[in-house]
Design the sequence.
């Protein structure tokens, strides 16, 4: 493998790590403030206990997300200096606003963490709300930069020079809205099902059931709503990709030949050499409809693009299948939860809790898969149709060592954080009222 | 608008050196303490710095974002040639951040604390050293900025500029500055024996700082490093350094008199003066490579970018600074009125 491959792997690995922690850090504050609100309203100590337990989780995830984010803000330049040299000034605006939002979050977290019994109750609660809002805002702003890589705008590209830069237009690039919506909902789905699943596991074990049931309900409510909205947002995203990045769409669907009334492939094994997909389920005309809202629309196949502008098909196709499959399953689970609110007896069944426990990691899997679709699907470009990833990489040799160091450190961190969460739960279970 | 951007660039640099530095320093003070004092220090810094400790490190992000948006030439040099020391800095920041939160938010206090504490102290000590080394590399005159990477060896391009005697001295100098800041800050947050302990630490740190400062200048002077040579021949820099030496006297008076807020301002003033002295001798030519000096204002981003950045910074600053100020005030990091101070003395 070459320097470029290691640089790409390192970026993928560190972003893949950061995305999990950042999403949890973004969404968990909302659970925390809902529980806090219930404590203020009902004065039921269960909610206070839960709020404080989640608060520690928020602190740990916030910091892990923050330090890995700090590392990323440097890494963008350290790995892709040529990209940042040109793109940095153009897409700087969302980053500088993100810095501000993140700062607000850190300040609010300071107030919230240290404000117990010191600040007026309502103000204290409100600082918790600010943590959540500014966290989501940071996420939305950062996605604007990624949207720009998919839909470069706000400049003119003449003879290899970026001129007439308009940062505001770059910020409001056409891919931003659909990507930010999809990403934010995904963060809610993944975190909610993850947290709910952990509490479902504790209910199964019969530990401190009352606390964990309250926790489960708060967490899953967010997730169920988000999971039901996600297919709509997915549809918006698909139509956007179909219009602006036909090669990505073709790779997502492993669609090799251009055709009218294109079928949708579900599953299947991609054979990149013979350019076909085996063992798939075919739904006639469905792809044309989903991409363009017309059963007979023409969908461009990969054969339309030069060899050196085609993304790795198999990875993108499989990742897309995983994302859509899990998304559908979680939306169904959301419906199941809403029904169980009416049919209370379901919640006494072990199967119910087993089901939600098993769903716990799936949201994150879908999150990572979706990110693979958008990032790998854009290859070989780092800025779509402007700059190739291979032209952006650092001239410094030896990225191999850097990659393995990051892998070692982040795996160690992931293990430690998981272990710490386990201890938080243990503490929650053994605490006396 | 360029001046607004420059102001925020220097402002975040100053605040990072100051507040981030005090954070690092707290860990350094803890590292060089007796076992008993380590525990005392651990509790004190959690109480004192806890609420803003994470906010302090965001200045670094703001700094790097401003650099990449407005000053791509500088950003590119820093990010390519300082790849290795910056990676070490990031590793240090990561370890320090997580070990701080782990040691205070772990559900159980048991033997794992030993690991968190060790990691926290160690990374607090080495990170500012690497930061100082990065700065030394930029001004040390050993950078080779080139398009033709194959002509030079790996060591000459990516190691030699930051890994040398001058940069190690600079790293140690910054680390002792951090320890000085932290111990001076903590004097005002403690009483009795603990207070005496921090006063002693602060004295030691001041001593080391002054000695290292002289060694650094002497080393640079005798090795003919352009940055130091220009520094000692620039009257403004010299005046700043002499002034910072003179101001040590009132600083110590205020510490002894228990004027904790004034002593903090004076400690901060020390940093302002040292930083100002270091930058003014060459400004806007901060980066000094092996064959030329590069201006910060060289090939800056187009006006439209600077404009939008300036506006974003004004809006962001307008939201952040009052919030930060209020946070510090709420938890008594700074006091605005002398009245509060009298109450404290009572």
Sequence:
């Amino acid at each position: 493998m070459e320097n470029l491959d290691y640089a790409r792997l390192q970026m993928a690995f560190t972003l893949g790590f950061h995305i999990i922690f950042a999403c949890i850090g973004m969404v968990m504050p909302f659970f925390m403030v809902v529980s806090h609100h219930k404590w203020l309203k009902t004065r039921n100590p269960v909610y206070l206990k839960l709020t404080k337990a989640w608060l520690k989780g928020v602190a740990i995830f916030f910091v892990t997300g923050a330090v890995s984010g700090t590392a990323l803000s440097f890494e963008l330049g350290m790995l892709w200096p040529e990209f940042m040299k040109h793109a940095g000034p153009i897409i700087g605006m969302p980053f500088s606003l993100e810095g501000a939002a993140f700062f607000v979050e850190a300040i609010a977290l300071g107030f919230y963490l240290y404000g117990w019994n010191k600040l007026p109750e309502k103000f204290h609660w409100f600082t918790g709300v600010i943590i959540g809002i500014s966290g989501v805002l940071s996420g939305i702003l950062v996605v604007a930069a990624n949207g720009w890589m998919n839909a470069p705008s706000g400049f003119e590209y003449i003879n290899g020079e970026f001129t007439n830069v308009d940062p505001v237009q770059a910020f409001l690039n056409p891919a931003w809205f659909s990507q930010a919506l999809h990403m934010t909902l995904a963060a809610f789905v993944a975190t909610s099902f993850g947290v709910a699943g952990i509490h479902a596991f504790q209910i199964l074990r019969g530990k401190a059931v009352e606390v964990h049931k309250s926790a489960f309900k708060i967490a899953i409510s967010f997730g169920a709503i988000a999971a039901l909205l996600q297919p709509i947002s997915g549809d918006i995203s698909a139509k956007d990709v179909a219009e602006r990045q036909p090669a990505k769409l073709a790779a997502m669907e492993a669609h090799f030949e251009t055709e009218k009334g294109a079928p949708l492939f579900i599953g299947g094994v991609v054979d990149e050499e013979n350019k076909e997909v085996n063992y798939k389920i075919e739904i006639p005309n469905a792809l044309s409809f989903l991409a363009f809202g017309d059963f007979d629309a023409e969908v461009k196949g990969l054969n339309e693009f030069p060899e050196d502008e085609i993304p790795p098909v198999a990875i993108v196709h499989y990742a897309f299948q995983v994302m859509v499959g899990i998304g559908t399953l979680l939306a169904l689970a959301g419906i199941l939860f809403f029904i169980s609110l009416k049919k209370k007896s379901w919640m006494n069944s072990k199967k119910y809790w087993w089901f939600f426990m098993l769903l716990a990691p799936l949201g994150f899997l879908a999150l990572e898969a979706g990110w693979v679709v958008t990032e790998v699907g854009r290859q070989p470009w780092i800025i779509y149709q402007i700059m190739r990833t291979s032209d952006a990489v650092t001239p410094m040799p030896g990225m191999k060592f850097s990659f393995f160091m990051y892998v070692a450190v982040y795996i160690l961190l992931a293990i430690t954080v998981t272990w710490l969460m386990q201890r938080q739960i243990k503490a929650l279970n053994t605490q006396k009222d | 608008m360029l001046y607004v951007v420059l102001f925020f660039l220097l402002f975040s640099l100053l605040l990072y050196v100051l507040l981030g530095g005090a954070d690092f320093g707290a860990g350094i003070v803890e590292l060089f303490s007796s076992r008993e004092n380590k525990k005392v220090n651990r509790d004190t810094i959690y109480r004192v710095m806890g609420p803003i400790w994470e906010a302090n490190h965001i200045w670094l992000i703001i700094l790097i974002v401003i650099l990449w948006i407005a000053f791509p030439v500088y950003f590119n040099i820093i990010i390519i040639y300082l790849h290795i020391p910056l990676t070490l800095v990031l590793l240090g920041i990561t370890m320090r951040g997580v070990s701080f939160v782990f040691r205070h938010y772990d559900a159980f206090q048991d033997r794992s604390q030993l690991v968190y504490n060790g990691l926290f102290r160690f990374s607090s000590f080495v990170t500012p050293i690497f930061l100082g080394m990065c700065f030394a590399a930029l001004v040390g005159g050993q950078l080779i900025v080139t398009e033709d990477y194959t002509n030079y060896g790996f060591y000459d391009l990516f190691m030699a500029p930051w890994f040398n005697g001058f940069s190690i001295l600079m790293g140690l100098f910054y680390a002792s500055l951090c320890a000085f800041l932290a111990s001076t800050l903590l004097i005002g947050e403690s009483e009795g024996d603990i207070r005496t302990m921090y006063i002693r630490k602060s004295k030691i740190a001041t001593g080391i700082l002054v000695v290292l400062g002289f060694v650094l200048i002497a080393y640079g002077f005798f090795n003919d490093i352009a940055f130091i040579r220009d520094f000692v021949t620039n009257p403004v820099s010299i005046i700043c350094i002499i002034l910072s030496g003179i101001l040590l006297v009132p600083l110590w008076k205020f510490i002894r008199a228990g004027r904790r807020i004034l002593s903090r301002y004076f400690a901060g003033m020390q940093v302002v003066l040292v930083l100002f002295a270091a930058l003014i001798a060459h400004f806007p030519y901060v980066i000094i490579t092996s064959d030329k000096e590069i201006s910060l204002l060289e090939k800056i981003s187009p006006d439209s970018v600077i404009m939008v950045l300036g506006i974003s910074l004004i809006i962001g600053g307008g939201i952040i600074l009052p919030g930060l100020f209020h946070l510090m005030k709420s938890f008594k990091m700074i006091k605005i009125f002398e009245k509060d101070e009298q109450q404290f003395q009572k």
